[in-house]
Amino acid sequence: MPLTREEAFPLVEMLQDIGYRASFHEDGGSAIESRMSGLGILIFYTPGRSLQFFCGVSLTKLPKFGLVEANNANRKFRFAKFYIDDEGDLALEMDATFNVEREGAREDLEVLVSLFEGSLAVMKEEIASASEGEQAEDPEARENVETVDNS
Question: What is the distance between the alpha carbons of residues 17 and 131, in angstroms, rounded to a whole number?
Answer without folding.
Answer: 37
